[in-house]
Specification:
transmembrane helix; heme; 17 helices; three-stranded antiparallel beta sheet; 12 strands; 515 residues; metal-binding
């Protein structure tokens, strides 16, 4: 009987302890952390129970997305990052807001940004989000990141990038041939965003994986769905354990992950068969080849522990590069075409340079594109005004100092790239004007601070594919300028929006004319 008497008491005590921990997690700790920041002079919007300020961010973004901008308006921060814009005006250049129960410190002071990106390696790193399955290079941390980076770095050496140029030219030639057919048939309006997504998908398939867009089309389609689910996940408040429940969204995510894995395994097995048939043992110097070589050496016992890649890791990296290698360059090219359609004088300057350097009918090559200074300036100005990634996020995994501030472990750190790129204190009064000339003396002298330009991030974790993306964009833009002139279509609606990356909300329609 005594045992039966104690059961309810023990259960009640356990429940009370559990509820107390929940209250600490969702209420007491956030309030304590807020006071900790306020004591250091860092203000921000008030914490709201469980959800934090996430609903405010979604609400403001939804409101702004219903209002297009004037055609040549490049002051896009209030539309793309309305919450940040409002809070910065209210609370100052560094402020803290709440993503669920997690504090997120927005940092715009460049000396602090420099500390985060260059000097705090080991103290803060990428936030781990499980919605995209196993992490690739872009989301790995610590020793695993360093290991994968060292394996993949050789794929982006200059001599290997030069070897990718013929594949880029071939893919672009096929696209331009279709554009010419479309014009000949009387249809000269195209959505360049859709066109560039297909083009860059084909290029990354050829150059990184030795396949083609036709073979990888299903993978890109599946990953487009996966990215939408990922974007929903990062905009929603994380609830511990919720990602393991068989909800409709989670089941959909698991099925997508399984199918993507199956498709990528087919690409890997195809390369394995090719090497077997040729009996060369050489997987090549593309991304997939380097990873498979590492895996082979591991299986043969020729690599030390922690210097190899498993099949699961190879699949994760393939997923990472299928997404990163396709969307970023497609978005860069899209906004560049829109800007040149808005600014015909710069379009003509770029075309004149391309024709002088490359001629009318010769394909650009790795040497000639290096001489396209005006084209490079235009691409940089496009990346400044419309950077594909509008924010960078890190997380402090241990207590750390940041300038004069003390940052508690678990704090997320947000760097609003878009805001920094549109800061008149850094770029002058013409900050919201399209002026490629500001990059005439190089990137480091374009602004009043040498690290004010960061479309590919900075520091040890700078985008590994930066040089490839810029080479690809230069070649494609040069080939377009050789053969076509273009203007903005009357159907184009100027509505940049954040959907994981900075995309045109209603497409990017232009009118083409053959030169």
């Amino acid at each position: 009987m005594e045992f039966c008497f104690w059961i309810p008491a023990v259960v009640s005590a356990g429940l009370a302890v559990f509820l107390l921990e929940v209250v600490k997690l969702i209420w007491l700790k956030p309030l304590q952390t807020r006071k900790y920041f306020e004591a250091q002079g860092i203000q921000g919007p008030p914490y709201k129970l469980l959800y934090g300020n996430a609903p405010d961010i979604v609400r403001m973004a939804s409101t702004e997305s219903s209002k297009p901008l004037p055609l040549t308006e490049h002051n896009i921060v209030p539309r793309v990052l309305p919450a940040y814009y409002h809070w910065m005006k209210t609370y100052g250049e560094n402020f803290v807001f709440w993503f669920g129960t997690k504090p997120r410190l927005c940092v715009t002071q460049l000396e602090l940004v420099k500390e985060i990106l260059f000097n705090k390696f080991g103290h803060c790193d990428k936030i781990q989000i499980k919605a995209l399955g196993n992490p690739g290079l872009g989301r790995l941390t610590g020793e695993k990141w360093a290991q994968h980076r060292s394996i993949l770095n050789p794929a982006f050496r200059l001599e290997l990038l030069k070897g990718m140029v013929p594949s880029i030219v071939e893919s672009c030639t096929n696209m331009l041939r279709e554009w010419s057919k479309s014009i000949s048939s009387g249809s000269n309006e195209i959505d360049v965003f859709k066109e560039f997504c297909i083009l860059t998908s084909d290029i990354i398939s050829r150059t990184a994986f030795g396949s083609s867009y036709a073979e990888g089309k299903h993978i890109f389609h599946l990953q487009a769905q996966q990215v939408l689910l990922f974007f929903e996940a990062i905009r929603s408040v994380p609830i511990p354990g919720f990602g393991s429940l068989p909800t409709r969204k989670n089941r959909q995510r698991w099925l997508l992950e399984k199918e993507i894995r199956r498709c990528i395994m087919q690409v890997i097995e195809s390369k394995e068969r090719t090497v077997g048939i040729e009996n060369s043992g050489d997987y090549g110097n593309d991304l997939l080849g380097l990873m498979m070589t590492s895996n082979k050496k591991q299986r043969e016992g020729k690599l030390q522990k922690n210097t190899n890649m498993t099949i699961d890791e190879i699949i994760a990296e393939c997923q990472n590069f299928y997404i990163a290698g396709q969307e970023t360059t497609a978005i860069l090219l899209t906004w560049t075409m829109v800007l040149l359609g808005m600014h015909p004088t710069w379009q003509e300057r770029a075309r004149k340079e391309v024709l002088e350097v490359c001629g009318k009918n010769d394909f650009p090559n790795a040497d000639t594109v290096n001489c396209l200074k005006t084209v490079g300036m235009i691409l940089n100005e496009s990346l400044r005004l419309y950077p594909p990634a509008v924010t960078l996020t890190r997380q402090a995994y241990k207590q750390m100092k940041l300038g004069r501030f003390s940052i508690p472990a678990g704090t997320q750190l947000e760097i609003p790239i878009l805001q920094i790129h549109h800061d008149p204190a850094l770029w002058g009064n013409s900050v919201n004007e399209f002026d490629p000339e500001r990059f005439g003396q190089g990137i480091s002298k374009a602004a009043k601070h040498p690290i004010a330009f960061m479309p590919f991030a900075l520091g040890p974790r700078i985008c590994i594919g930066q040089n490839f993306a810029l080479l690809e964009a230069k070649i494609i833009l040069a080939m377009i300028l050789q053969h076509f002139s273009f203007v903005i279509s009357p159907h184009y609606i100027h509505a940049p929006m954040q959907s994981l990356l900075l995309k045109p909300q209603h497409g990017a329609q232009i009118i083409l004319h053959k030169n």
